[in-house]
Amino acid sequence: MGMNRLFGLVAVGLSVAIGIVTPAGSDELKVGARTEPASMDPHTIWSGASTQFYVHYLGFLVRTTPDNKLIPALAETFKPLSDNEWEFVLRPNVKFGNGEPVTVADVIASLNRARNNPRGSYASLFAGVTEFVEVDARTLRVKTSRPYPTLANSFSQIAILPASVIAKVATAEFGTAAANVGAGPYKFVSFTPGDRLVLERNDDYFGEKARWSKVTFRFLTNNAARVAALLAGDVDAIDGVPPEEIATLKARPEFNVLSGPSDRAVYMSLDTERSPTPFIKGPNGEAIDKNPLADVRVRRALSMAVDREAIRDRVMDGLSYPINQVGAPSLGGFNKELLPVKSDPAGARKLLAEAGWPNGFSLKLQCPSGRLVNDARICQVLGQMLQRVGIKTEVEVTPYNVYISRMTNHAGERGSIFMSTWASSYAGEVGGALENVLHTYDKSRRLGAWNLGHYSNPKVDKLIVDSAVILDSTKRHADQAEAMRIAMEDVGVLPLHLQAVVVAVRKGLDATIYSNEYTIADAIRPLAESKK
Predict the structure, then answer these.
(1) Do the Cβ atoms of 414 and 406 come closer than 8 Å?
(2) CA 520, 524, 526: angle at the middle one, nearest 5?
(3) pTM of the entire structure?
(4) Which class would CATH give 27-219?
(5) In order along the chain (532 residues), what is the average pLDDT of each group of 10 residues?
(6) What is the biggest distance separating any 2 CA atoms in the chain, rounded to whole angstroms?
(7) Which CATH number applies to 263-499: 3.30.70.3040, 1.10.600.10, 3.40.50.10750, 3.10.105.10?
């Protein structure tokens, strides 16, 4: 099934009617969100699930549109001056919520804080960056050791805070208003872990005024609870509508259900480095002294054991797009020559036997709950598919905010086979996935920050690094496609599918879909306003 047909199957703008939520014409919005921030510190864990909240109340040099085009934000202009230098000029007279002017000193302090965070989550965005130069209070120049054609895209991910706040506020304090001093369209009011984030309109915002006087994001990570909140009128909109609930919402004439394609790839990270790896044992649960995943034949067997079409049809109700690489067809560098990975349990068993595992082995399969569409259900089904090829599988599902902290700790326990996700939409090409997910983890060079299984191939690394400095996008994308081919033939990760973005709003509201899966308050608006 082609992607256009797939997303065309979802009703866009389906009318539906209970009418007991926030009254029509109200200036407040309540959103049921499927996830909460992985961290309230905007420079600690780089995750779209967190950034979608930050962009409401914090300032960014540049921002992205729903279709991932870069637009000015705090930076009035941005451009490369040469192969090794970029210039960002700030808007005049912009202030933070505490009344302080936004200056280049604040920008540099924020960039350095993200760049030097011990977790290294944002590190790859600064690969090749050598110096920040404060020309004057409004002009920043960024010097690089090599051409960096997508630098502005990378900086769309870094929140800008006052240098005065950075100097005195610790990570633990970012759940308070004292720390979350921003320059976004909204102001931070309060954050209650596991419950809600409350924002209010920033009347001093430099751009178009925020649509809502107050926005409350309620963290409803349970699918049924999120849908129930919409049906009961407790919220005006929900994101991450579970596929199995779409029919229920279609049957109620008080809602609009809207959908669009996502650039988010869902895949399984595979620990190819540690031997033994902590969550794989022998066929009878006995300790073993080697890591089966170090053998490419085993990794290929695991990929052949997975029936991606069955996951799409039986778990996702048709709302996923099976993939053979970490990226979407809409991105530059997507390899169009790679063949689909077909389910072949018999072939998988044969490869396992050839690799020295005729009786399989046992493992713990680890996944988050509340981050990805049907993530826990997918994990259970994957476990069953692996069982069919002789791999005894225990499934462990953990709340996302706990899970992400564990799995992104390169020095910690990380899983052996565990669910991961990446969206390169911010970069507009697969280079982001290559540098972050598939390059060898190299903290000193700020590469491989999200290569959580520590896959490594020198040929892939060279193609990634060399392509990153090519200004000719056609040549750059060709080299990226080749790097992706090699990494996928290695099964550096085990790709599953792209998600669909599905949201539901009460009657009288409309919503614009962001392909990066951000849930943006001002993308939800009265239907009458969207028709203007």
Answers:
(1) yes
(2) 160
(3) 0.78
(4) alpha beta
(5) 38 32 68 94 92 97 89 97 97 96 98 90 90 98 95 96 94 87 97 97 96 98 94 96 87 91 93 96 96 98 98 92 94 95 97 98 96 94 98 96 90 92 87 96 91 98 96 95 98 96 95 92 90 58
(6) 69
(7) 3.10.105.10
